[in-house]
Structure to design on (229 residues):
């Protein structure tokens, strides 16, 4: 079965410190991986994606993610966290089903950045 | 561009009532999707429309119907609402079903069924 796991319900980090939000996946074939962010009472916003090529992907708002095929992981990172980064983060993988590709989402990780 | 818009933003229904959630996109996207978001469960796909004129079931289609009215609009209907359908509903769109492009999300509809 194709799935995405975000092992941490919440991540707490102090402002200015580096942050990591973890994601592992299980999918047949080559994975297409995505990170989205959701601010309170808003829809999801696209951050970045991995399709192919360089394992380190750079995205919006200073975020980056590292694809690791051997560990089937796609962790989201940022060198220096901001209080405004506090939000709900979702990892997603594109899965093929019946010829159409759909996104499978993880349960989400709440990031809290403290001043 | 407004992107993806949804109406209404909030709705309270009684068990057994019906309603239609509306979604429209102005990005000329081919594919559209309906998700529900429940605490601790991420987003689950209800129905999707790979292109105008086609619709298919997602992960949790029971109790819902959809209509792809035209390329811009994709509506979700609850024929007889149940408390288990209390959730936040998101509509999304993407350029196509087989590409690697990201999905764009609307602001959501918060539905409570009493």
């Amino acid at each position: 079965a194709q799935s995405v796991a975000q092992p941490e319900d919440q991540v707490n980090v102090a402002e200015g410190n580096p942050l990591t939000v973890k994601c592992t996946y299980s999918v047949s074939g080559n994975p297409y991986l995505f990170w989205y962010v959701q601010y309170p009472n808003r829809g999801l916003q696209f951050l970045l994606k991995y399709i192919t090529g360089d394992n380190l992907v750079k995205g919006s708002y200073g975020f980056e993610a590292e694809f690791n095929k051997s560990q089937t992981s796609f962790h989201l990172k940022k060198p220096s966290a901001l209080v405004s980064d506090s939000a709900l983060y979702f990892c997603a993988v594109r899965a093929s089903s019946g010829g159409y590709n759909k996104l499978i989402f993880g349960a989400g990780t709440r990031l809290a950045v403290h001043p | 561009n407004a992107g993806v818009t949804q109406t209404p933003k909030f709705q309270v229904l009684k068990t057994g009532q019906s309603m239609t959630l509306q979604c429209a996109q102005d990005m000329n996207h081919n594919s559209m999707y309906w998700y529900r978001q429940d605490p601790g469960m991420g987003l689950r796909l209800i129905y999707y429309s790979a292109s105008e004129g086609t619709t298919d079931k997602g992960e949790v289609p029971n109790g819902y119907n959809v209509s792809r009215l035209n390329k811009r609009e994709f509506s979700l209907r609850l024929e007889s609402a149940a408390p288990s359908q209390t959730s936040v509903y998101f509509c999304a769109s993407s350029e196509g079903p087989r590409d690697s492009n990201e999905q764009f999300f609307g602001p959501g509809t918060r539905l409570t069924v009493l």
Observations:
- Chain A has a mean pLDDT of 92.
